[in-house]
Design a protein that fits this description.
The complex is a heterodimer of chains A (about 425) and B (about 70).
Chain A lengths: L21 H10 L12 H7 L3 E7 L9 H14 L14 E10 L3 E4 L1 H4 L4 E5 L5 E10 L4 E6 L21 E6 L7 E12 L9 E4 L11 E3 L5 E8 L10 E5 H14 L5 E2 L2 E5 L2 H6 L8 E6 L4 H5 L6 E5 L2 E2 L3 H10 L5 E8 L2 E8 L1 E2 L19 E4 L4 E4 L3 H10 L6
Antiparallel strand pairs in A: 1-2, 1-4, 2-3, 3-6, 4-5, 5-6, 7-8, 7-10, 8-9, 9-12, 10-11, 11-12, 13-20, 14-15, 15-16, 16-17, 16-18, 18-19, 21-22
Chain B lengths: L1 E4 L4 H4 L7 E5 L2 E2 L3 H13 L4 E8 L4 E8 L4
Antiparallel strand pairs in B: 2-3, 2-4, 4-5
The chains are: A alpha+beta (about 425), B alpha+beta (about 70).
């Protein structure tokens, strides 16, 4: 995600009052950080056009009596607080039958984007449009890992649809507008700025959230985050909150990820993720130094799946993946997303750092299946023989038993290079 | 194989545990504690402050790369 950095030293001598379009204001807000006090006169003209594209989603779920022990409910209460949504107003749901969320129309024929957690487990889903028309919705596809779902409603007339924007062009400090159904208050508009990008909040394997201070509350889940051009750059999905209410820390799934997932859900009803066949780890400063790499970047290959695409392409344990598909890999977490976003079967150029040199490889991506069982080694510690201390490391060592060694060689493919 | 980790040492800091197996150091395979000692000495001689261990973590049943600082002794 390379972005052009605009120097911030061109500070205007006076604070200007803007009466013009909000677009201009966004530019001013960026160029005058020291005096960033101005708010746009109004988002009204923009919001006017956006409101009809946003919908309220309510679901009905039959919950069996007797399953909800207090412990169970406590778990879900915490879960919903952490995920920041799914639920209606009450802080502690009790055998909830209904839940509320948000969504937006992405296609005039009636495709609606929302969060997976808004519709998960629902028996019936109904969508209320901005003009109060209520329509039954069916699930086209839902993806738990990215927390995205695509619904379809049948409407006799074309519906007003929102447009995707480029979340990759979004910068920290840009204005954003959230529209949704917080606590069942449909058509609620809030505004804020992008507080941070690429947030990993441990919600899933592809975390890459846009953080905002626009007020987002329960029921906002699945609703759009618009940029100042009125394009969808995110899907509001989670909040951090000790109280359950907004404290100005909300998270949206970036459109760069969502758009691709939504297309796949529309075309296949499911997501086919690219698979590289490596287990990767974070490159710390120390590992970078140990690997003679100029800076801590990329993804370090801890192991290569036997028979996987990476092995076929010649990726080796100890390689640092620096570039994938022509884009640099800044951190190891980015790679999972980059791979998942890439269509299955495509030939992808990969640059790795190996023994002090960059090596170019070509990988044909496979399809990610559910995780294969890992051959487990005995948990107990088999006895060692000959021992030795390595003081510089602070370790006492022993030679491993032949049993363990053979188990290891079985797990580990030869890495002759 | 690691049988003991000295408390407060550089390896302890990296959460290395008894039972973990050092498979490689600086991309060279090790077969015995002697190999480990030799490669650590070599790294020191070459003025490196860090060695990179490929460790098989028995607890996780998987490999992990661990960079460990060398004491300047």
């Amino acid at each position: 995600m390379t972005q052009v950095t605009i120097p911030l030293h061109r500070t205007p001598p006076v604070v200007r009052f803007l009466i013009a379009a909000p677009l201009l204001l966004a530019v001013l807000a960026l160029s005058s950080v020291a005096q960033a006090r101005g708010a746009p006169d109004s988002f009204a003209d923009l919001v006017d056009k956006l409101l009809p594209t946003v919908v309220n989603i309510s679901t009905t779920q039959t919950v069996e009596q007797g399953r909800g022990t207090e412990e169970f409910e406590e778990f879900f209460r915490e879960f919903f607080e952490r995920r920041g949504g799914g639920g209606g107003g009450e802080p502690a749901p009790r055998r909830r039958q209904n839940s509320l969320g948000s969504g937006f129309i992405i296609d005039r024929t009636g495709y609606i984007v929302t969060n997976h957690h808004v519709i998960a487990g629902a028996d019936e889903i109904s969508v209320r449009l901005a003009d109060d028309t209520t329509l039954e919705a069916t699930i086209v596809g839902s993806d738990e890992k990215t927390d995205l779902a695509l619904l379809k409603v049948e409407s006799p007339t074309p519906l007003p649809a929102a447009r995707w924007g480029q979340s990759e062009d979004t910068r920290i400090g840009d204005w954003v507008i959230a529209i949704g159904n917080p606590l069942g208050l449909g058509g609620t508009v809030t505004a804020g700025i992008v507080s941070a990008l690429q947030r990993d909040i441990n919600a899933g394997p592809y975390d890459d959230f846009i953080q905002t201070d626009a007020a987002i509350n329960k029921g906002n889940s699945g609703g759009p985050m618009f940029n100042i051009k009125g394009q969808v750059i995110g899907i509001n999905s989670a909040i951090f909150s000790p109280s359950g209410g907004s404290i100005g820390i909300g998270f949206a799934i970036p459109s760069a990820l969502a758009e691709n997932i939504v297309l796949q859900l529309r075309d296949h009803g499911a997501v086919r993720r690219g698979w590289l066949g490596v287990r990767i780890q974070h490159v710390t400063d120390e590992l970078a130094e140990g690997l003679r790499l100029d800076s801590a970047r990329g993804a370090l290959v801890a192991s290569v799946s036997p028979g996987g695409p990476a092995e076929a392409a010649g990726v080796k344990q100890g390689d640092v993946i620096l570039e994938f598909n022509g884009r640099p890999v800044p951190k190891y977490r980015n790679l999972s997303r980059m791979v998942a976003e890439t269509p299955v079967g495509r030939d992808v150029a990969v640059v790795v750092w190996r023994k002090g040199k960059e090596v170019k490889l070509k990988v044909e991506l496979g399809e990610l299946k559910d995780e294969a069982a890992v051959a487990a080694l005995p948990e107990e510690t088999p006895g060692g023989t000959e021992s030795g201390d390595v003081e510089a490391l602070g370790l006492k060592l022993a030679t491993i038993t032949p049993e363990l060694r053979s188990a290891l060689s079985w797990t580990r493919r030869p890495t002759a290079s | 194989m690691i049988t003991d980790v000295l408390p407060g040492g550089n390896a302890a800091e990296k959460n290395l545990k008894p039972g973990d197996v050092i498979v490689e150091i600086d991309l060279e395979e090790v077969r015995s504690p002697d190999d480990v000692a030799k490669l650590v000495e070599k790294a020191k001689d070459e003025d490196y402050r860090v060695v990179t261990l490929l460790v098989f973590r028995q607890g996780k049943s998987d490999f992990e790369w661990v960079a460990v600082r060398l004491d300047n002794s």
